[in-house]
Amino acid sequence: MSKKYSYKDAGVDIDLEADGVKSLIRQLSFRRSGEHGMVGGVGHFAGMIDFGPKVLSLCTDGVGTKMRVADDLRDWSTVGIDCIAMNVNDMYVMNIEPIAFVDYIATEGIKADQMIQIGIGLNEGAKLSNMNIVGGETATLKGMVTGLDLAGTCLGVQDRDRVVSGEKVKPGDIIIGVASTGVHSNGYTLARKVATENGGYSVKLPSGKTIGEALITPTRIYSEVLDVCRAVEVHGMCHVTGGGLLNFLRISEYGFSIDDPMPVPEVLQWIAEKGELEINELYRTFNMGMGFAFIVPEASVAKILAMVDGAQVVGRVIEEHKVLLKGVEIL
């Protein structure tokens, strides 16, 4: 018999994490004097720095416990793509072009085969996002780290007047979702628990893929965003990562109603079924098939649907600052 799971019971309390981040941000009151100060506040998907007519942007992220799946499968060839994707997708949200990247590997001990495979993925991610990897750091932390952790930091640039901050989002705008490639790189503490307690990574899905193969599928890099923003008016965007649909609340003071959600990938259907996960738990933990979203005026819809593979209209912007899924609030 399967059992009912939750992200909190698996070891990750989203609400506690949000409170912790807010507590940290409250301490970050210092602001640089002189040139190249901060543009905007802390809390959007990427931070911005004044650079005259342009802004520079920085963000940092990692692969998380998806690395544990890679370890179990002894396949690290795609986690470099994940590491870059989780960073550059946060830049694309603001129509910022990623230009440079540095990686950080913390490990209990260097293994040449791991480094080769990680390098292959990082190189592919850099190619997919047209970005230079300009350096990095590898730290052997035996006694402090078990296994291997991969993270990185991205630098981006954009003309100041072309940044999409979300301030133009207004009620009535249309939400266009863009398909994910699966679980991407969030919710793996829960996904791994469901998988390992319900047959393991060798269980086959209807497509013939194993659970392990589906879980190791790399995060989609949404590089087409830059072309879309050159072609049509875009009011806001969202990278659907940890926190699921609640990421939309980072964009605007208004709310978001997802009336026609995207098809759910088979691996997430399997996790939902085996874990007996409630709808609210699923849509505040996983991307559930929508890895990215555009918030646009009606006039931009047709062109975006024609330009972006796997895009569909999923909802609209509403007055009240909350997220609705088929009329029910996600909490």
UniProtKB/TrEMBL annotation:
Name of the protein in its database record: Phosphoribosylformylglycinamidine cyclo-ligase
InterPro entries found in the cross-reference section: PurM-like_C_dom, PurM-like_C_sf, PurM-like_N, PurM-like_N_sf, PurM_cligase
Domain PurM-like C-terminal: 170-322
EC number: 6.3.3.1
UniProt catalytic activity: 2-formamido-N(1)-(5-O-phospho-beta-D-ribosyl)acetamidine + ATP = 5-amino-1-(5-phospho-beta-D-ribosyl)imidazole + ADP + phosphate + H(+)
Protein family: Belongs to the AIR synthase family.
Molecular function in Gene Ontology: ATP binding; phosphoribosylamine-glycine ligase activity; phosphoribosylformylglycinamidine cyclo-ligase activity
Pathway(s) served: Purine metabolism; IMP biosynthesis via de novo pathway; 5-amino-1-(5-phospho-D-ribosyl)imidazole from N(2)-formyl-N(1)-(5-phospho-D-ribosyl)glycinamide: step 2/2
Keyword Transferase (UniProt): no
Subcellular location: Cytoplasm
Keywords annotated in UniProt: ATP-binding, Cytoplasm, Ligase, Nucleotide-binding, Purine biosynthesis
Gene3D superfamilies in UniProt: PurM-like C-terminal domain, PurM-like, N-terminal domain
Pfam families in UniProt: AIRS, AIRS_C
Domain of life where this protein originates: Archaea
Cellular component terms (Gene Ontology): cytosol
Keyword Repeat among record annotations: no
Residues in PurM-like N-terminal domain copies: 46-157
Naturally occurring in which organism (per UniProt): Methanorbis rubei
GO annotation terms (biological process): 'de novo' IMP biosynthetic process; adenine biosynthetic process
